[in-house]
């Protein structure tokens, strides 16, 4: 994800949008993996809630970047 974010930062608008959408997909997969880890009790409640909070904030920031990129096309 980090590699895609760096590439998106350096890319032009059309390519940036494609890269950001790939990051969004990876974020959704990560959220699912975290939830599964919690479901099988590999994470306790406190760690799960902290991770969910952080991932939610990352999602908000990513969504804003995607929205801004779309308006600049």
Describe, in plain words, how this protein is organized in 3D.
The chain has 73 residues and is mainly α. The chain has one domain. Helices cover 86% and strands 0% of the residues. Helix 2 runs antiparallel to helix 3. It starts with a helix and ends with a helix.
Count of DSSP E strands? Answer: 0
Let me know the average pLDDT.
97
Radius of gyration: 14 Å
**Domain tally:** 1
Estimate the global geometry from the Cα principal axes: elongated
The main β sheet shows up as: none
Distance between the termini: 23 Å
Parts with pLDDT < 50 across at least 5 consecutive residues: none
Strand content: under 5%
Q: What string gives the helices and strands in order?
A: HHH
Q: Helical percent range?
A: over 70%
- Class inferred from helices and paired strands: mainly alpha
Number of discrete helical segments = 3
Short descriptors:
single chain, about 70 residues, mainly alpha, about 85% helix, elongated
Blueprint of the fold:
Blueprint: H1 2-10, H2 13-39, H3 45-71
Summarize the structure.
The protein is 86% helix and 0% strand. It is an all-alpha fold and 73 residues long.
